[in-house]
């Protein structure tokens, strides 16, 4: 299950890249900017601003799921069964109701990836798997990375690494670069804000570092979670002293994904304002430099 293929990307690894977004994630990060990526199944997104009051096409397609009310649709998410959502694809003329998630084979995805191979060759780009968590779909991730290697295409994976190691290990020979999140080293804070296990993530990070694969650590800086000097020092120390990486990227928190929670009828539990602390960002970069790392701020 994938939810997007983005061509001509320049922010997800070196050069010009095609980014394949796979659905499914084992974390529940409060600040997630792609909440539509969490579930492994297709989902309905509803934007009431685009809904036509006198249109009944979606209700006619799936009357057991949708009711029209005075101020928009009432969607019975609890009634959705496998296959129900498929009847709603392309039924809405204004795209007020959209389906997020499409099933695709590795061959179908690679047909799109290969269209831009000349751009990869000229720019040093390639394929990036993102999500969600790509390794929640280990067989598809492995197939795409292996097929890309066979076509001499550079491969990268954007990952939170919150999966069993056996999901990752088969893809190691075919992955050139890991862009891996290091959200926190404190188990309690990590559990509270992500519903996950920091121990699992840290262990996987160490294994990837020991494998000799190129590894860039990415740190989302979230107010109330890790956007403070003590947390930044601990995270950077782990990256430098335990992983021995060269590059660390700091990603200041923003709220650009907040509206997606409304589309999914889900609560937004993260801060409602972006991180605006230049002094803290300067500290993060300076401390990383003092630890011998190349630090980059990414918007």
UniProtKB/TrEMBL annotation:
UniProt xrefs under PROSITE patterns: RADICAL_ACTIVATING, RADICAL_SAM
Keywords from the named record: 4Fe-4S, Iron, Iron-sulfur, Metal-binding, Oxidoreductase, S-adenosyl-L-methionine
Signal peptide start-end: none
InterPro entries found in the cross-reference section: Aldolase_TIM (IPR013785), BssD/PflA/YjjW (IPR040074), Organic_radical-activating (IPR034457), Organic_radical_activase (IPR012839), Radical_activat_CS (IPR001989), rSAM (IPR007197), rSAM_sf (IPR058240)
The protein's required cofactors: [4Fe-4S] cluster
One of the Pfam families matching this protein, by short name: Radical_SAM
Location of the Radical SAM core domain: 11-290
SUPFAM superfamilies to which the protein is assigned, alphabetical: Radical SAM enzymes (SSF102114)
NCBIfam families: PFLE_PFLC
Family, per entry: Belongs to the organic radical-activating enzymes family.
Designated name of the protein: Glycyl-radical enzyme activating protein
Organism, as annotated: Siccibacter colletis
């Amino acid at each position: 299950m994938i939810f997007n293929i983005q061509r001509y990307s320049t922010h997800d690894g070196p050069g010009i890249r095609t980014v394949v977004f796979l659905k499914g994630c084992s974390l529940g990060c409060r600040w997630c900017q792609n909440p539509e990526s969490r579930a492994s199944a297709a989902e309905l997104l509803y934007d009431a601003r685009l809904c036509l009051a006198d249109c009944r096409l979606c209700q006619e397609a799936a009357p057991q799921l949708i009711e029209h009310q005075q101020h928009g649709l009432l969607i019975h998410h609890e009634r959705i069964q496998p296959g129900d959502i498929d009847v709603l694809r392309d039924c809405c003329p204004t795209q007020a109701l959209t389906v997020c998630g499409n099933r695709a084979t590795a061959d179908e995805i690679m047909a799109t990836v290969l269209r831009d191979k000349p751009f990869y060759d000229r720019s040093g780009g390639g394929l990036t798997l993102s999500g969600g968590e790509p390794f929640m779909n280990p067989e598809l991730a492995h197939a795409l990375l292996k097929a890309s290697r066979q076509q001499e295409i550079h491969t990268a994976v954007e990952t939170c690494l919150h999966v069993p190691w056996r999901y990752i290990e088969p893809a190691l020979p075919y992955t050139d670069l890991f862009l891996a999140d290091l959200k926190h080293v404190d188990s309690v804070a990590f559990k509270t804000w992500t519903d996950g296990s920091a121990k699992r993530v840290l262990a996987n990070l160490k294994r990837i570092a020991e494998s000799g694969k190129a590894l860039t650590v990415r740190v989302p800086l979230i107010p109330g979670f890790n956007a403070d000097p003590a947390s930044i020092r601990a995270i950077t120390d782990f990256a430098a002293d335990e992983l021995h990486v060269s590059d660390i990227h700091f990603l200041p928190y923003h709220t650009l994904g907040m509206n997606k929670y409304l589309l999914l009828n889900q609560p937004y539990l993260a801060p409602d304002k972006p991180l605006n602390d230049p002094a803290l960002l300067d500290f993060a970069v300076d401390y990383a430099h003092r630890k011998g790392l190349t630090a980059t701020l990414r918007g």
